[in-house]
């Protein structure tokens, strides 16, 4: 493809104005043509400000022959207002955006907004004004002001950021600022980051580790596409080993991106990184302040940020000179974005590495079935670390049969697990109880009339949170105060909690082991990097005996004194009939089991289940991952499910149930029907109502050789839908 746009061609003598085609980042229309003002030179990739009606919008100059051929009259062309003083988007970056737009059936502006997030880049001011509250408080204290002082201790940010953090209006913060109760800070957004030192603090790798590290280093020296599955059991030193790859990328002067699944994880990770490389990496995640975001974006785009550690959104940033991507815990579901552009960061990472020709390392102890398959068929290189570092042995996994040794009524910890907790406590060691359910109880039921308390906006139960005395919907965030009486029949004291959440398990632990110090770890209690840090310190300093947590504790943490893991309910994940349920359960339980016995002291894992013979549980107990993967792959192949076939989901939604249903039927009726392309449904989507919208799903199943996206695009393009109906497209949906 030509990269120079037509207006750059010398000898153009038509007398027409020079024009460019611009993809607007925030408009539903476009791309649009604009005239290039005298004295301005523009090439594809340049970031520009252009007029649209009365507004000034940001856009990116795009190569497009039609800018010349499609005749918008010169007189109708409006001129580009300004060229931003920002690094242009490279060819590779534009090709990646086009690929993602095609593959994920998303609009180009939606993809580009991930590369150029407005607040990060576009204001060219060199500094941002931030405030922090002084100690001295005003005499007149309203409730909102009190809340601001409580929540903002030591915190610095813009008025908007402080208001959001304190959950008060911006007016409250502005009032305090104007009243002289805040310090003002001018934060530069172009301050350079310290370069990491590849040799700051190297560890001695074991022979196996060194061997794998050497292969990674060689791959980086090759400067070509190399997809690598770094397949090592938990605690085998995957991080230490891929740090050697990071070091090599730094030596080569290439940028390196480390993708991590959870924001809460970045804190211990950043410290570990700083120890190895002498300085922290550049972090990118949704919790950044505007000033931090802008500074990071600039450094990423101009190449002065060497190593970037980020959540999935960092994948689409316009790196100047990227030479390596590492996806840590690559099987994690949080790499899949479930709104907007529904991409899988793991897959985009591989595509980006392919397009820009550099190695990509997927690190995991329990790879996604798809990644495992790619290694099996030789598309990915598998590098294995089969043993834990330093002779630590893998923990024993034993089932606790809930039918043979059941817990007491309305209790969830069975006698063998209670005993194990007691023994561990007596030895002065730590335990972890895993249950992937936030709150106190997943369901609140009226004993009198049988009414279940549901979210008004979603087809989901309201979950009781006793710590905050509230009921909360985990899908839309709707909260209400805990009720005293049944909203249906009005009976007093008739509401009962059904089933356990982590808070309820904590109560049970407190009753059974009154001497144990326990801590609940969920996104409700660990909601900031500082909280995560506090948690790590408490556990590391042995101030905690029993950790009770959701999937937030299954990853990344390394606690040498933690020797017992109890899985409260191994069967939960297998309910629901989702085809990926077995894989997900296997990964989750393996990961949480991997927290036990990571140092000298051996660990053990007790898995409570009603069905010890289920293949997932049996495989976990036998420690036979590969047999499990082989069986899973065989059943996927039989059904032609991914990775052997392809899937796409269409979620059709409206606030009006009949309208959504009607639209879904209409779309279903016009579905193309050809060999290797089958459409199932419509049926109510897995969450049939979400945020007040009724949802129906059509599922596309396609043979690998069929151009599925094109068929979907051709199918949907001519369809006109009522205003209130939305269609969300999910290519390679995670659940199926
Ligand atoms: P994984 O990422 O595979 O779970 P880590 O890289 O986190 O494993 O290593 C597990 C623990 O063992 C960490 O505390 C790490 O610092 C330590 N470790 C691993 N390899 C070495 C090594 N070669 N020398 C010293 N410590 C190591
Ligand atoms: Zn809801």
From TrEMBL:
It comes from Alterisphingorhabdus coralli. Pfam families: DEAD (PF00270), PriA_3primeBD (PF17764), PriA_C (PF18074), Zn_ribbon_PriA (PF18319). Zn(2+) 1 binds at residues 446, 449, 486, 489. Keywords: ATP-binding, DNA replication, DNA-binding, Helicase, Hydrolase, Isomerase, Metal-binding, Nucleotide-binding, Primosome, Zinc. One of its GO terms (cellular component) is primosome complex. Binds 2 zinc ions per subunit. It catalyses: Couples ATP hydrolysis with the unwinding of duplex DNA by translocating in the 3'-5' direction; ATP + H2O = ADP + phosphate + H(+). Its EC number is 5.6.2.4. Initiates the restart of stalled replication forks, which reloads the replicative helicase on sites other than the origin of replication. Recognizes and binds to abandoned replication forks and remodels them to uncover a helicase loading site. Promotes assembly of the primosome at these replication forks. Zn(2+) 2 binds at residues 455, 458, 473, 476. Its cofactor is Zn(2+). GO terms for molecular function: 3'-5' DNA helicase activity; ATP binding; DNA binding; hydrolase activity; zinc ion binding. HAMAP family: PriA (MF_00983). The keyword Isomerase applies. The keyword Transcription does not apply. Component of the replication restart primosome. It comes from the Bacteria. This is Replication restart protein PriA. Belongs to the helicase family. PriA subfamily. PANTHER family: PRIMOSOMAL PROTEIN N. GO terms for biological process: DNA recombination; DNA replication initiation; DNA replication, synthesis of primer; double-strand break repair. The lineage of its organism: Bacteria, Pseudomonadati, Pseudomonadota, Alphaproteobacteria, Sphingomonadales. Gene3D superfamilies: P-loop containing nucleotide triphosphate hydrolases (3.40.50.300), PriA, 3(prime) DNA-binding domain (3.40.1440.60). CDD domains: DEXHc_priA (cd17929).
């Amino acid at each position: 493809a030509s990269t120079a746009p037509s207006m750059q061609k010398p000898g153009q003598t038509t007398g027409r104005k020079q024009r460019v085609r611009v993809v607007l980042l925030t408009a539903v229309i476009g791309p649009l043509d604009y005239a290039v003002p005298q004295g301005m030179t523009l090439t594809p990739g340049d970031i520009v400000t252009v007029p649209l009606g009365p507004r000034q919008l940001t856009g990116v100059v795009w190569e497009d022959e039609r800018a010349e051929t499609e005749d918008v009259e010169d007189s109708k062309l409006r001129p580009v207002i300004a060229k931003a003083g920002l690094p242009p988007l490279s060819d590779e970056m534009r090709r990646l955006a086009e690929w993602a737009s095609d593959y994920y059936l998303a609009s180009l502006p939606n993809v580009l907004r991930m590369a150029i997030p407005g607040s990060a880049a576009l204001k060219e001011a060199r500094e941002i004004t931030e405030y922090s509250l002084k100690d001295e408080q005003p005499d007149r204290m309203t409730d909102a002001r009190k809340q601001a002082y409580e929540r903002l201790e030591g915190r610095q940010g813009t008025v908007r950021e402080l208001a959001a953090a304190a959950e008060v209006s911006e007016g409250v913060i502005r009032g305090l600022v104007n009243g002289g109760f805040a310090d003002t800070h001018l934060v530069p957004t172009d301050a350079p980051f310290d370069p990491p030192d590849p040799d700051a603090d190297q560890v001695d790798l074991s022979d196996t580790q060194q061997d794998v590290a050497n292969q990674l280093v060689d791959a980086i020296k090759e400067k070509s596409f190399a997809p690598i599955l770094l397949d090592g059991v938990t605690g085998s030193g995957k991080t230490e080993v891929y740090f050697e790859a990071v070091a090599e990328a730094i030596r080569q002067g290439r940028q390196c991106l480390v993708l991590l699944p959870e924001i809460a994880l970045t804190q211990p990770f950043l410290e570990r990184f700083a120890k190895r490389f002498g300085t922290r990496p550049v972090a990118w995640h949704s919790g950044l302040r505007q000033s931090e975001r802008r500074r990071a974006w600039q450094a990423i785009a101009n190449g002065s940020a060497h190593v970037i550690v980020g959540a999935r959104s960092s994948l689409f940033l316009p790196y100047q000179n990227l030479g390596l991507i590492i996806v840590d815990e690559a099987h994690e579901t949080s790499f899949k974005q479930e709104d907007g552009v529904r991409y899988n960061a793991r897959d985009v990472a591989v595509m980006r590495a392919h397009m820009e020709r550099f190695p990509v390392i997927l690190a995991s102890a329990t790879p996604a079935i798809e990644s495992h398959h790619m290694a099996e068929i030789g598309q990915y290189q598998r590098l294995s670390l089969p043993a834990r570092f330093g002779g630590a042995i893998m923990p024993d996994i034993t089932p606790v049969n809930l039918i043979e040794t059941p817990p007491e009524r309305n209790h969830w910890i069975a006698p063998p697990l209670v005993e194990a907790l007691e023994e561990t406590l007596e030895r002065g060691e730590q335990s972890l109880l895993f249950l992937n359910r936030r709150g106190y109880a997943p369901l609140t039921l009226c004993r009198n009339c049988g009414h279940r308390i549901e979210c008004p906006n979603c087809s989901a139960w309201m979950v009781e949170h006793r710590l905050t005395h509230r009921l909360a919907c985990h899908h839309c965030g709707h909260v209400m105060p805990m009720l005293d009486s049944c909203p249906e029949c009005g009976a007093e004291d008739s509401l009962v909690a059904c089933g356990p959440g982590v808070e309820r398990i904590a109560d049970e632990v407190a009753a059974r082991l009154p001497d144990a110090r326990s801590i609940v770890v969920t996104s409700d209690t660990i909601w900031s990097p500082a909280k995560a840090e506090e948690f790590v310190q408490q556990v590391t300093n042995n101030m905690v005996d029993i950790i009770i947590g959701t999937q937030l504790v299954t990853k990344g943490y390394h606690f040498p004194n933690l020797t017992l893991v109890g899985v409260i309910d191994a069967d939960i994940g297998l309910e629901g009939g989702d085809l990926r349920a077995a894989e997900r359960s296997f990964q989750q339980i393996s990961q949480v089991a991997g927290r036990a016995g990571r140092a000298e002291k051996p660990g053990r894992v007790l898995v409570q289940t009603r069905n010890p013979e289920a293949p997932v549980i049996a495989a976990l107990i036998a420690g036979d991952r590969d047999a499990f993967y082989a069986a899973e792959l065989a059943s996927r192949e039989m059904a032609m499910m991914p990775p052997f076939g392809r899937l796409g989901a269409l979620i059709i939604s409206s606030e009006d149930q009949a309208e959504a249903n009607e639209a879904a039927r209409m779309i279903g009726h016009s579905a193309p029907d050809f060999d290797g392309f089958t459409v199932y449904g419509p049926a109510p989507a897995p969450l049939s109502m979400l945020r007040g919208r009724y949802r129906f799903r059509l599922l596309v199943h396609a043979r690998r050789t069929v151009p599925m996206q094109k068929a979907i695009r051709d199918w949907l393009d001519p369809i006109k839908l009522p205003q209130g109906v939305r269609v969300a497209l999910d290519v390679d949906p995670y659940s199926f």
